[in-house]
Amino acid sequence: MNSSAGNKEQIDAVFKNNIIPPLLQLLADDEFAIRKEAAYAISNMISFGNSDQIKFLIQQGCIRPLCDLLKVLDPKIITIALESLETILKIGVEDMRMTCATYNEMAVLISEHEGLDRIEVLQMHPMTEIYNRCISILETYYGIEEESECVI
Question: Which H or E run contains 124?
């Protein structure tokens, strides 16, 4: 799935060829090796994709399997899941500013899929990188909210 980490045209090809639904099914597979490869592909698309592409992944159901990855034992997979969820939360902040919403819809979706609970549990993770990312996510997206600046 190297094309999911490529340039805009390569990522567009992944979306246009309807690869996302089966890729998300693989992300929920029982076999960890398959889930791991699908996690890398989805993470790459979230990292290198534009806002519309990320929103499409969200509409297709990427949040649930990303939240489920927060329960695995592989620290690298936990890290890429956290990075992907954080990017999704940033999209939610952008949407809040554009629509003058009072809450981050992506934060709510992640909470509904048990992501918030899992991030809170991961605060106890022995790896400093995971611990720090969890603290940052919790403080930035689930802490005391500051007034958002609306773009009208």
Answer: none
